[in-house]
């Protein structure tokens, strides 16, 4: 019974610790997290600023660095190195759950004695971490922090390898360049207009000032263009300035028009970045890299209840959750936290499903999303199409389907081979009718489906070896658990007789004691 007890304990003592670990993972590894985007920008800043001195030294540039700046850059490089050492350890720690993997290895039936079980647990716990260490990004991270070992600092190439980490944090750069690319035509027009404005007025002022003998400051056309750039940017160093009335008049016109053009360019750039953020917010983001996540296809009161339970139990902190629907996000009656992603699109299209990583999802929920003009039969047909698409793209996913019509449930069961099917309104109606005949049944049902105190499904071989259900019942009662059903090859046998033979491959549903 240890596996049942341990499975339930995981919900309590280490909850905050696990939440913190997932928060660290989202910052360092989850590209769809806003925290990761902010961290990438910060890490890019550290990489670029900490390699300035290294580049000057490596390229033997004829630039003399002031002694105080040289001392600062050396100290700053050491601080950044230690920062990335901590980052590497944090990534190694957050990439997998060692305790869960250890428990799985320790409980392996192939491991006989205690020492062998201990070795199996350690090997299973370290396996995903060692696999991560062999990935290209992890190798770059390791090479970048090797200069923390003092003798290795003499190897200049190791110090410069830190610049390769820019590849890891490239998502931040991609977001900026992506925003610029989307508005490239507009930026091209504005930049060309600004260039022509500066060149035209610079040369006009140069001609006027040359005519008035101001050749000490306006020595050439290039000096005039330099003056135009400095002036239109409102910096105005004062080393070059017009002395004639005509030159000052032209300068006033240039500044007035230039302020408008520069402001337009700044506004366009800001709008492009804001639009980029709105794209993420409104669900145009592609999430192909998600793994072992939950995908909810469609939106209705059933999906809303599922999401509320996910939020209440903080499941979204443990694994990514994605909602795919044509319903605008602003029409949701609940506020989605940042850890639940929204994808706007029709879930009956394959490319939409692939953009949310449906092929690597662990659980897929397909609800009966109502659309104007569609009958219940057509809605169930859309659900069936989406179900077949999901099964084709990800045969290993756990699929849960909601249908509207009773007769359609048989189609899903027999032809599409879906076991987890809920007929909309049927369960609620049965529970309410049961409460009429047996007052208090509703409270009992709510307790049975409670995440922390309700039914738990466990494979028999993970509990022990039993000849009959009676043996399993006697064993479980010693630990205050009650086996209430056996699942065999997709069929559920509720409260089987004591002499019912139990197989290792069966699943048993346990109910814990308590209020």
TrEMBL record:
Pfam families recorded: Ion_trans, Slo-like_RCK
Record's subcellular location: Membrane
Keywords: Membrane, Transmembrane, Transmembrane helix
Bilayer-spanning residue ranges: 38-56, 76-94, 186-208, 220-237, 249-279
Domain called RCK N-terminal: residue spans: 291-423
Record PANTHER family: POTASSIUM CHANNEL PROTEIN 2-RELATED-RELATED (PTHR43833), POTASSIUM CHANNEL PROTEIN YUGO-RELATED (PTHR43833:SF9)
The protein, known as: BK channel
Protein's organism: Persephonella atlantica
């Amino acid at each position: 019974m240890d596996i049942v007890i341990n499975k339930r304990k995981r919900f309590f003592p280490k909850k905050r610790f696990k939440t913190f670990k997932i928060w660290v993972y989202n910052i360092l590894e989850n590209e769809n997290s806003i925290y990761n985007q902010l961290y990438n920008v910060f890490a890019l800043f550290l990489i670029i600023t900490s390699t300035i001195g290294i580049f000057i030294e490596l390229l033997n540039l004829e630039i003399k660095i002031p002694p105080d700046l040289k001392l600062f850059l050396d100290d700053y490089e050491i601080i950044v190195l230690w920062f990335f050492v901590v980052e590497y350890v944090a990534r190694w720690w957050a990439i997998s759950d060692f305790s869960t993997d250890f428990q799985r290895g320790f409980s392996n039936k192939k491991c006989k004695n205690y020492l062998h079980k201990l070795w199996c647990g350690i090997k299973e716990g370290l396996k995903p971490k060692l696999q991560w260490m062999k990935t290209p990004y992890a190798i770059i991270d390791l090479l970048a922090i090797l200069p923390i070992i003092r003798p290795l600092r003499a190897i200049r190439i190791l110090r410069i390898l830190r610049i390769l980490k820019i590849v890891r944090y490239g998502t931040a750069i991609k977001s900026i360049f992506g925003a610029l690319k989307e508005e490239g035509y507009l930026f091209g027009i504005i930049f060309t207009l600004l260039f022509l404005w500066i060149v035209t007025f610079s040369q006009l002022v140069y001609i006027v000032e040359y005519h008035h003998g101001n050749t000490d400051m306006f020595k050439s056309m290039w000096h005039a263009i330099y003056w135009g750039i400095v002036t239109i940017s409102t910096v105005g160093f004062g080393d070059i300035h017009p002395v004639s009335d005509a030159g000052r008049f032209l300068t006033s016109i240039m500044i007035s028009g230039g302020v408008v053009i520069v402001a337009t360019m700044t506004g366009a750039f800001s709008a492009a970045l804001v639009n980029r953020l709105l794209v993420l917010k409104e669900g145009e983001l592609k999430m192909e890299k998600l793994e072992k996540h939950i995908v909810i296809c469609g939106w209705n009161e059933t999906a809303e209840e599922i999401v509320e339970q996910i939020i209440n139990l903080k499941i979204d902190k443990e694994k990514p959750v994605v909602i795919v629907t044509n319903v605008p996000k602003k029409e949701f009656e609940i506020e989605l936290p940042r850890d639940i992603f929204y994808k706007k699109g029709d879930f009956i299209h394959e490319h939409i499903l692939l953009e949310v990583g449906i092929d690597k999802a662990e659980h897929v929920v397909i609800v009966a999303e109502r659309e104007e003009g569609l009958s219940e039969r057509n809605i169930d047909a859309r659900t069936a199409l989406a179900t077949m698409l999901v099964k084709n793209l990800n045969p290993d996913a756990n699929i849960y389907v909601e249908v509207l019509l009773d007769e359609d449930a048989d189609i899903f069961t027999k032809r599409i081979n879906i076991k987890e099917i809920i007929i909309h309104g049927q369960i609620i109606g049965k529970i309410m009718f049961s409460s009429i005949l047996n007052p208090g049944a509703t409270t009992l049902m709510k307790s049975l489906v409670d995440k922390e105190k309700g039914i738990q499904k466990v494979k028999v071989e993970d509990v022990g070896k039993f000849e009959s259900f009676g043996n399993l019942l006697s064993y479980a009662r010693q630990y205050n658990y009650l086996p209430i059903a056996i699942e065999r090859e997709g069929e559920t046998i509720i409260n089987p007789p004591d002499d019912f033979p139990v197989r290792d491959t069966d699943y048993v549903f346990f109910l814990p004691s308590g209020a």
